[in-house]
Specification:
Blueprint: H1 18-23, E1 25-27, E2 33-36, E3 42-44, E4 49-51, E5 54-56, H2 58-70, H3 73-78, H4 82-85, H5 89-99, H6 104-111, H7 115-143, H8 145-175, H9 177-183
Antiparallel strand pairs: 1-2, 2-3, 4-5
The structure holds zinc ion (ZN).
Zinc ion is lined by residues 36, 38-39, 41, 65, 69-70.
Length: 185
């Protein structure tokens, strides 16, 4: 299976987009199947699945599977190996508190740390989020073929226009009407 993460095979996980990570499953390009990113289970479109005692579509089935088998996308992602999600135990606890809509007071009491520490962890998580978004956008400029192609086209166009202007300048230096009529008499 491609996404057998619990077995330490995280090689394919890095290829997933933010949207797929957020959903917890991958839709194939022609939308003929949904694959759970946590265990690789495939749900084929057009097949009727039985989930929670009733018949459901592939997409519904994979959503319910993620919830029932992995505790939902949040826990699925949180429980990934530290090598994959990069989260410390404290960060996981703070995130879980936020996920369960607990306030800072509740979180700090349960974790046995000060409210200031909880606030600081929350601040750092938001800071990481902002930085991660910038890094994503930066890497898109390097890795996204469409963006790279578009950039090269724009650069090429700019160069062509510059060349054209330089040519005009040269012709102006030798035979500009202003100089011939007024200055060179
Ligand atoms: Zn699964």
């Amino acid at each position: 299976m491609r996404f057998c993460l619990k077995n330490g095979d995280a090689m394919e996980f890095k290829e997933l987009t933010v949207e797929e990570l957020t959903l917890g499953y991958i839709q194939s390009p022609q939308e003929e199947s949904c694959t759970c990113i946590f265990c690789g289970e495939v749900y084929e479109e057009g097949i009727v699945y039985r989930s929670r005692g009733r018949t459901v579509t592939a997409e519904r089935a994979v959503k319910e599977h993620i919830f029932d088998r992995h505790g939902g996308v949040f826990h699925g992602l949180l429980d990934l190996d530290k090598q994959v999600n990069g989260l410390s135990e404290i960060q996981k606890d703070v995130l879980t508190g936020m996920y369960l809509e607990k306030d800072n007071k509740q979180i700090c009491e349960e974790m046995g740390i000060s409210a200031a520490t909880v606030r600081s962890h929350k601040f750092n998580l938001q800071k990481s989020k902002r930085e991660a978004k910038i890094l994503l956008a930066l890497l898109e400029q390097i890795e996204n073929e469409t963006i790279v192609k578009q950039r090269k086209k724009t650069e090429q166009e700019a160069l062509s226009i510059e060349e054209l202007l330089v040519k005009k300048d040269f012709s102006g230096n030798t035979l500009h009407p202003f100089f011939t009529q007024y200055n060179l008499k």
